[in-house]
Every structure is written in structure tokens, then in C-alpha cells.
């Protein structure tokens, strides 16, 4: 039995003569939370569709939960999926909707109550989906995705249109599942919010993997400076003027000394900004274009 | 890592119990389709439509028979069968043409396909659910008419009525599977609707006109019987017409008796033709849908 939940080895996908995924190779381990990051059209959804067996790769090898997803349906029993924009049938209640998917997955329908409680829908379970807010619909979608304790959870843009509180809850559930040994893959273009939640980030551009690692690794790879800004009377060394503040661009090693110097110079209103995932992503894109 | 992976799985005993209690996926989909039909008022509206039209025919049709040798129910069979040829295919196509495309447009198709079931099971389940909707509407609707006539004139001729009802459901099944084939093959509901309207016009109107034109063009030269037979089974509505109106008392009333008597087609062959018309497009729908890259 293989340990990896997902293995991609030189996977390629061509749509209408245009390659949307090029020679992609990576593997995902149990307990990992992985962010799949990229613009629209970077090939994120195509990868997820291939993992689900909805579309077949045109080259390379793909293994999901120890099986080829295009053949057989057994592995899908341990797989949870939340599509990007799903519109459940409006005239069914949340409970009826979830029970339908539970039956398809072979999960006891009685388990649904616990799931409603977990996603915070216990009070609304018997109301028709018609009356649900966008957040409640997404909660229902999430409950559906985590039916039967999946070992692989694929969430396509799970937080788009969610309020911050619900986003935090969603990431909480994701962390719980990962702690229990599930592999969670989130695709997103809202990069900054992923930072604290995904231990590993895979950056995609036009179907190619351009970076893969932890946030710290990516930060180091990108070599982007942190930005120190403050108010001070005297002009510090190497500082540039931004509005009425001084700005210094610092590497990791320069940070302590520069901070000390700024404090000695009587700096006020200090902000120190590390490069965000957005900045790193933009950096990798620029490097790719060059 | 491995211990973690196994600890999150269901205990073996519980898993086995869940497996045993698992409803077959086809039935789960069929149940859902029927439930959707109920919620969408499809079941109610088609049943009312069928009942209203059948009752109207029963009321009109049973009036002038008086004390002829023809049973009142036979008259109703002729009227209802003529109506069914237009209406049942239309209702069947309306129900089935967006079965797959609707799911795709709602975004639930990918979700459905991410579950442990094969694509042919989705098509089969939808077909069974829609057949249940159609059967409910037809049986309840026609029973209203039959009830009315039996109450007024007695139950003579009920066998023909039962055969006609069963044949109507079979005709509906043919068009359900044609609609499903259209829905499986295209991307959008509007395209599938266009194809369905085309199919309906072809089988209900154009085909017979073309056949008639061909016969007239032959200028009265008899064409061989097997060509005529083939022409009749190549259109499911003609096969249905011959099956319900070709034999017994209704043949005399409908004028189909002449065609039937000159034809080598037995009721068994006609039923076989309709069943083939139902299974071939259904199998094609499963094949087309399974091959699609989504």
C-alpha cells in the first residue's frame, strides 16, 4: 500500500490542442493541508477534475488513494469534494440533500445530524435550501464534502464569498480533518487568507508548477524584502520617502540591526511588513514571464 | 502515518454494516428524480393534464355509442390512443431532455460524479425515476377516464384499455430514453430542448407525412409488405398506433385494422420494437455520457 494520498507523475492535459496542464509532478501525504494557488485558468480545476476521474490525463501517471481515478469508483468512497459554485436543489431541505449524498456514499443517514452540528447548520437542517444564505449553502456543501470521514478532501475555491467568521470556521474544520490524517487540498486565488492555514503551497501558472513548498521556503526562494516603515525626524541610511514616512527594504538578516537603528533614531508608528503570499505569487509570475 | 490513516477509517464491522444497508446507487438516483418530480409539480401537473384530457375524451366518446355492439371503453381507447401519440412523447421529452444538462448547469453534476457510482448508473437511475413519474401520471390520469366510462356504461372492453395504458407507458419510455440521449450528448439544456422538439416533430408529424407522400408517389403500385412493416417499426409512434388500434374492436373504429391485417407484424413484434426503441437510445445515452470529458 502506498503512503501518498495523491501522486502525479508527469501528468499532462490538453484541451482543444492547448495544453492546460504541463508535465506536473507532485505528491500529497496524509495529514497535509495544501493550497493550490494560481490565476483563473492556471489549471487548478483541471487538476481536481483529473483527481476525481471526471477527465482523463493525456499523459503521465496519476494515482489517487492508491488507484487510477479514471478506472473504478471504489476510491471515491474515501474522497470528499466541494465544487466551486454549487447550487443545491432549492426545494429540498438541507437534511434531504445531505441524506441523498450520504446514501450515494454508503454513509449511514443517521450520521448527518452530527455533521449539521459540526458545520453549524443544526437549526436550519430542516428548512428548504431556498431560504439559505450563501454562507449556509457553503456550510451544506462542506457538510457534504466531509461525509464519511474522507481521507482526501478537495475544496475548489471554498472561501469565495464567505464572511470572515465562516472562513475561520471552515479552516478550523480543515485543520481538524488534517489532524485526523486526511489530506486536504484547497484551491484558491484569495492567497493572503491561506497563509496561516496551509502548511504547503503549490503555485501554478498556465498549467505549470512554478513553486512548491512551505510558506517559509517560498519566502526564502522568492528572496523578497520585508518592508519597514516609520515616522522619524532624521533621515535613516538607505531609506526612501513614501508619503510622510520613511521606508526601508530589508532582507531577513538585516531586520534586527535596522530595527535597532530606527528605534535609536526615535522612530514612531513603526510597521514591519513581510511579503505576503500575494507578493510572493506575483514575484514567481514575474520570474516566469522573464 | 499509516496508523493515522487506518484510525480515521470506519471500524471494519461498522463499514460492513453500512455496506449491507447501502441502497443501490441506481435506486437512490431514481428516488431522488421522482422526489424532484414531486417538488417541481411535474407529477401533479402531468397527472392533471392527462386526467383532464382523458376525462374529456371519455365524456365525449362514450356519449354517442348508444346501444351499438361496440363497448364504450373501446371508443375511449381509440380517442385516448390518438391523444397519447401526441401528448405522451411530448411530456416524456419535457421531463427527460434536461436530466443531465440541468445538473451540469446547477453545478451538481461534478459533485454527483465525485461519488462512488458509475456514470451509467446515473443515466439508469434518472430513467427509472422519470419512468415512475410518467407511469404515475398515465395510470392515474387514464384511470379517471376509465372510471367515468365504467360507471356510465360498464366495464366491457377493459382488456383493450389495460393494454393501451401499458403501451402508452412503453411509448413514454421510448421518448424518455431519447430525451436522456439528447441530454447526455450536449452541454446545454436549450440545445437538448431543441433536439427534443425536433425528435417530437419528426416522429409525430413529419415521418408519417413523408411515408404517406412516398406511398402516394408510388402511384398505387403495391410496395412489398416487409418495407411497409419496416417503415412502421422505424417510428415508435407508428408501432404504438398499430399495437393499440390494430386489433379487436378498436381497429374497426380507428381504421388501423386494414393496415394491421396486411402486415406481418404481430403484437409481440411491435412490443419488441418498442422495447428496442427504448433500450437502444438508453444504452447510447450511457455510452455517450461515460465517454464525455467533463
Describe the structure.
The complex is a heterodimer of chains A (290) and B (294). Chain A has 290 residues and is of the alpha/beta class. Chain A is 30% helix and 28% strand. Chain A is built from 8 helices and 13 strands. Chain A has helices spanning 44-52, 94-105, 112-118, 134-145, 164-179, 215-222, 255-264, 277-289; strands at residues 6-15, 18-28, 33-37, 59-64, 79-82, 152-156, 183-188, 200-205, 208-214, 226-231, 240-242, 245-250, 268-273. In chain A, 41% of the residues are buried. Chain B is an all-alpha fold. In chain B, helix 4 runs antiparallel to helix 5, helix 5 packs across helix 13 and helix 8 runs antiparallel to helix 15. Chain B starts with a helix and ends with a helix. The model of chain B is unreliable at 1-10 (pLDDT under 50).
How many domains make up the coordinates of chain A? 3
CATH topology of the largest domain in chain A: Rossmann fold
Query: What class, by secondary structure content of chain A?
Result: alpha/beta
Most extensive chain interface and residues per partner: A-B, 43 and 35 residues
Give the total of domains of chain B: 1
Q: Estimate the mean pLDDT confidence of chain B.
A: 83
| Major sheet of chain B | none
Order of helices and strands of chain A: EEEHEEHHHEHEEEHEEEHEH
Name the poorly predicted regions of chain A: none
The CA-CA distance between the termini of chain A, in Å, is: 42 Å
CATH architecture of the largest domain in chain A: 3-Layer(aba) Sandwich
Specify the overall morphology of chain B: globular
